[in-house]
């Protein structure tokens, strides 16, 4: 198994990613755009999530797909980034239309991370920058994009070190692709007890996050690693935000299963994960380019996609911290 040509989530055909970064405020927004209404699902495991439009994605609900997913810094203020994305896409005619001549209604779920205690001027009064950053992130969307301290990862922290945006892909053959993008801001540690080896080291491909391997087998008996930012944890101040994508034609229930399986990638790469202080969330989005079998082999393919998604999440988390540092 190899990554796609970019080793980014945009190796899944039909996706573009745009960052908008406010260096003065030390924050930003990252938007994943789809080329049509893609099937979407979400799985929330953290104790302090900040979200928008997640109930829309429930398998029992009507709306069939999404037009973008927005990840933002800024805590609750960052939810306004999706307003900018919705406005920009609507004027471009992207979205659901309830009548032939009606206004386009983009479906744009989003999630936020807390970066308000970091560097930068957050004294924005009644004019937080996030709507404008959302607008700009759509304009910046490309298949190639930067990793590290950009967009939603600009003010992120991963334990005691800088967090950031990470992304990877995995080619499963016969045209089937899986990718992941993570905005990494957990309370836990991404490093093993040696302080240099990523927990995700067994999943690394071609030295994509430095190639460090443990000397011997470092034991991990302490459930609260010293490298984690655990001295003064506060509810809702940390999170790992993830989008996983595939070009397999999934329904909403199947996408939900992929999102649930992909959460294991957070647990493989961050310790501890899914804490009361994190807002860990995984969005799963699926195009329709690759048809899956209709017989019992379909569930085997979903198993393979979900397992690949979990590995990609672990790799994306480590890669985000590697590039941010």
Automatic annotation (TrEMBL):
Identify the InterPro entries for this entry.
ArgJ-like_dom_sf (IPR016117), Peptidase_S58_DmpA (IPR005321)
Write down the CDD domains for this protein, in alphabetical order.
Answer: nylC_like
Q: Which SUPFAM superfamilies match?
A: DmpA/ArgJ-like
Q: Name any one GO molecular function.
A: aminopeptidase activity
Q: Family assignment?
A: Belongs to the peptidase S58 family.
What name is this protein filed under? Answer: P1 family peptidase
The organism is Sphingomonas chungangi
């Amino acid at each position: 198994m190899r990554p796609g040509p970019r080793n980014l989530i945009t190796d899944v055909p039909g996706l573009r990613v745009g960052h908008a970064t406010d260096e003065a405020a030390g924050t930003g927004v990252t938007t994943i755009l789809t080329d049509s209404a893609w099937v979407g699902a979400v799985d929330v495991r953290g104790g302090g999530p900040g979200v928008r439009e997640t109930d829309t994605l429930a398998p029992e609900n009507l709306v069939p797909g999404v037009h973008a997913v927005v990840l933002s810094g800024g805590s609750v203020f960052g939810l306004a980034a999706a307003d900018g994305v919705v406005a920009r896409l609507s004027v471009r005619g992207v979205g659901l239309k309830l009548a032939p001549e009606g206004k386009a209604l983009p479906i744009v779920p989003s999630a936020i991370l807390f970066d308000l205690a970091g560097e930068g001027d957050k004294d924005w009064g009644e004019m937080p920058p996030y709507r404008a950053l959302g607008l700009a992130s759509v304009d910046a969307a490309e298949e190639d994009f930067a990793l590290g301290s950009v967009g939603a990862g600009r003010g992120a922290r991963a334990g005691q070190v800088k967090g950031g945006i990470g992304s990877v892909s995995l080619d499963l053959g016969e045209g089937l692709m899986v990718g992941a993008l993570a905005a990494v801001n957990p309370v836990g540690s991404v490093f093993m007890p040696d302080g240099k080896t990523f927990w995700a080291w067994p999943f690394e491909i071609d030295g994509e996050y430095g190639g460090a391997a443990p000397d011997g087998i470092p034991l991990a008996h302490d459930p609260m690693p010293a490298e984690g930012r655990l001295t003064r944890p506060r509810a809702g101040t940390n999170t790992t935000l993830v989008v996983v994508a595939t070009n397999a034609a999934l329904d909403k229930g199947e996408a939900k299963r992929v999102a649930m399986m992909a959460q294991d990638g957070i647990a493989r790469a961050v310790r501890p994960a899914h804490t009361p202080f994190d807002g860990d969330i995984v969005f799963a989005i699926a195009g329709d380019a690759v048809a899956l079998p209709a017989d019992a082999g379909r569930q085997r393919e979903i198993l393979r996609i979900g397992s690949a998604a979990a590995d990609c999440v672990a790799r994306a988390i480590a890669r985000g911290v590697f590039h941010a540092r």
